[in-house]
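Thread: quick sanity check before group meeting

JM: Hey all, I'm pulling together slides for Thursday and realized we never actually wrote out the predicted structure for the chain we discussed last week. Dropping the sequence here so it's in one place. If anyone has concerns about the input, flag it before I start.
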Amino acid sequence: MLSGCDFLLTCSFEDNWPNVLVEAGAYGVIPIVGPGHGCEEFVKVFQFGFVADEYTAESFATTIEKLMDIRGLEGRQDFSERVRSTHDKRKVARQYAAVLNKLQFVT
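JM (edit): ok, ran it. Output follows.
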């Protein structure tokens, strides 16, 4: 389903790092998010996507219009590869194991 989408609109007022952005990003789906929390951070970290100026229908509509103006947005494949690499289950498992190893030595 996501592979057939051009963009994902996430109007969440507060979310740390939503899985839906990771899942959509793995398919190169362009994120459109609201300002001021983890969704905006996701866009900034991957330097890909759009952040609406505020939480209004008008602001999100304007942001979608910006995307439509540059329909052939380059970088979707690179974005997809970076999201997949960053969230690779082996990489995440190694990071998790490293944290657990550090915790074992704390008394």
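AS: nice. The CA atoms of residues 40 and 99 lie 26 Å apart. The two ends are 48 Å apart (CA to CA).
JM: adding both to the slides.
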